[in-house]
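Render this sequence as a predicted structure.
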Amino acid sequence: MPEHMSPREDRLRTGEPMLEAGVRDHVAVCPISPGLAAELVGLADLRWGGENWWEVCDEAMRALGWCDEAETELSFAAWFVTSTGHHVFEGDYGLMVPFCEKYQVGPDHVFVENEWGKLPGWTSRVGAGLNEYNAHLSAAVRQFAELLGPPDLDVLVEAPDVPSGWRHTGWRRGGNALLLAQGTEPFSYHAHEEAKVCIRPLPPDGQFPSAARLTAFTQS
């Protein structure tokens, strides 16, 4: 958000709903470092579609030194936690690694405290909104583009109550897809948003799902 623009002016410009009294916007981030980007590309090059995909990827993440006994406040469902503090969640034949969260804290909300901002490796900024959230995603896209070149997919998907839509960016990696996607955040019962890295099987000659199906593709 430009320094001269107040949170109210920013919300009016981006079309975000105005906040209730006592509620504050937050954006928390655990940036994708060059090292983590390279590790995730390596995982995307594994064979995720086979019957033993879970064991193969489990062994690979252990070899990276990632922790499989996370005890942080929001990691009870995590498969692993990376050395930089990202939680790794198992999906259907794939994984999801959130790196940026956009949420609200206030009375009678899902979060009454800044839970994401308390996690090791994460930082948060109160009053931050859509522009900062999108900027963190763009930074992650640039990080992967430095390794993989321009993305094979870069689209905006229509999203409820999000006038600008959700960005989905992806690269083909042999029999898989590596994607950066925006969508809802499950710990808030899908009331808040997050940006994440996703790895999913995708045949080398297959097409990325249509824009209408991309959100489901990166959330399952």
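Summary. The mean pLDDT is 85. The first helix runs from residue 7 to 14.
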